[in-house]
Amino acid sequence: MYHLSVCLLHFQRLLGQILSAVHQCHSRRVSHRDLKPANLLVDQKKYTLKVADSGFSIPHKKQNARLREKP
Fold first, then answer.
1. Chain Cα centroid distance, residue 24
2. At 7, which CATH number?
3. Positions marked catalytic
4. Span of the secretion signal (predicted)?
């Protein structure tokens, strides 16, 4: 049971770091657009995560044109 709870804690920590990285991108009005396991770099000793390969990233416009359109 101890091993399972430790794995769960590591998973929660890594998931929190992924969500934080996405939040940082979005707060700077940027979409990563290629978020996948191959683009997540994990330091297995420290359980830290970095998001890589932002080659497909695009900046958001100030306002989304579709939000301004009325049906």
1. 8
2. 1.10.510.10
3. 34
4. 1-16
Contact yes or no for 40/61 (Cβ under 8 A): no
Q: How high is the mean pLDDT in each 10-residue block of the chain (71 residues)?
A: 76 94 88 87 90 76 53 48
Q: How high is the pLDDT of residue 5?
A: 77
Residue 7 CA to residue 14 CA, distance in Å, equals: 11
- The four Cα atoms 50, 20, 12, 52 give a dihedral, to 10 degrees, of -20
Q: How far apart are CA 26 and CA 44, in angstroms?
A: 26
pTM of the model: 0.69
Instruction: Decide: 51 and 27 in contact? Cβ < 8 Å.
Output: no
